[in-house]
Amino acid sequence: MGNRIVENDISIEELLSEDPDGIILSGGPTLERSGRSQSYLEEIDLPFLGICLGHQIIANTFGGSVRRGKEEYAEVEVEILDGDDIFMDMPNKIKVWSSHGDEVVEISPMLKRLARSDICEYEAIRHRERPIFGVQWHPEVYHTERGEKIFKNFVEICRG
Amino acid sequence: MDTKGFIRETIEAIREEVKGKALMALSGGVDSSVCAYLSHKAIGSDLYPVFIDTGLMRLDEPAKIKETFKEMDLRVINAKESFLDSLRGVEEPEEKRKVIGNLFIRVFEEVARKVGARYLIQGTIYPDRIESEGGIKSHHNVGGMPLDYDFEEVIEPLRDLYKDEVREVARALSLPDEISERMPYPGPGMAVRILGEVTEEKLKIVKRANKIVEEEIKAYNPWQAFAALLGKGTGVKGDRRVYGWIISVRAVESRDGMTVNFLRLPWDTLERISFRITGEVPGVSRVVYDITPKPPATIEYE
């Protein structure tokens, strides 16, 4: 499985022309700069993994709310409440690295909470029916424990 | 990453792109050195490596770089006065980076005219672009670089690599350890390690303090370790009040510079650094250790 990085405002047709197996919504500075991410989530029936801003976009799209919260930078200890799918074969507690000022404060019944910390109650979420996952922290950075495992799990989910 | 494939394809691409002579902007760091070696393999004597002595480098650095690149017919341009003049009165960090980026290009243009080169090759890497385009800080070779440059083309062969990948390429090219394992050093040099206006006095102090920090921390294999000059504070030396400079010591570990943490140095080492800096560098009366990760801080101060 290869990977391609594209801008978050390309059209759905253009995105699908890449023939993706799954889509990762990356981090970014503010919800205002989320491009067409929301329409990808609504209209494309593929696995999604949202990271940081991507996680907040998922919450927002499916009826949750995002607000200016307690800020988290660098190391945060996260408690995983549901070890299926995206957190398969991972310990219950991991030290991860975060960098955000906004946070998810509420989710709708369409979503399910997967992880929490003492600073943020919605560190990870998923869609109840579709393979859509969000993590508030950054699994892609060196200092996050077991970050690579999350990507491997996501690849497995994409393989179906 | 496929290092061998990358080297082969990059050399071919440079050969393809450069029609004539090219200047190579060389700072002596791992990025521009790798770039210089690849470009030299690609176009040989059509490559003109140029090192600008900005006066903002570390102590003795220009001399060391001349020695390392003596086989490549390196041109060293002394532009110390121009840099110091242009920075006079400039306090705002982004403005500083732009002044420096602009001057770099103007000096390169002048050399290019003399030797008849139409291309500029520089060692920009992926994080330089992320940080510049994301508005975090303007790297002198990307966001801080003027767009009205007088080159046919600016070529950036390493633009998609992270630092650790550049090091892999350096090792595969069998470059000496002092290049492949060299600590990152910012393009604008000491100018971003001096808060506020850059003056000759501050430069002298921060360079001497920096040398001590590098010497004392070398054994801990830091990703980066340096001194920065923050401002002034009250002290007492030999029963006399001094209003002296405050030096911050920064030492961090990382894989790629995208996230870093401070080194948990032994107290004895920190104590020795403080003792040496306050004793050996006149005008310094206080030394602090920076314990902030990135994020929220960056590695460099400005």
Automatic annotation (TrEMBL), chain B:
Which EC number(s) are documented for this chain?
6.3.5.2
What GO annotations for molecular function exist for this entry? Answer: ATP binding; GMP synthase activity
Q: In which pathway does it act?
A: Purine metabolism; GMP biosynthesis; GMP from XMP (L-Gln route): step 1/1
State the reactions this protein catalyses: XMP + L-glutamine + ATP + H2O = GMP + L-glutamate + AMP + diphosphate + 2 H(+)
Function of the molecule: Catalyzes the synthesis of GMP from XMP.
Q: How does it assemble?
A: Heterodimer composed of a glutamine amidotransferase subunit (A) and a GMP-binding subunit (B).
Residues that hold ATP according to the record: S27, G28, G29, V30, D31, S32, S33
Q: Which NCBIfam families match?
A: guaA_Cterm
Provide the top EC class: ligase
PROSITE patterns in alphabetical order: GMPS_ATP_PPASE
Q: Ligase: is it a keyword of this entry?
A: yes
Encoding gene, per UniProt annotation: guaA
One Gene Ontology cellular component term attached to this UniProt record is: cytosol
Q: Where is the GMPS ATP-PPase domain?
A: 1-182
InterPro entries linked: GMP_synth_C, GMP_synthase_B, GMPS_ATP_PPase_dom, Rossmann-like_a/b/a_fold
- Superkingdom as given in the UniProt entry: Archaea
| Keywords annotated in UniProt | ATP-binding, GMP biosynthesis, Ligase, Nucleotide-binding, Purine biosynthesis
**Record protein name field:** GMP synthase [glutamine-hydrolyzing] subunit B
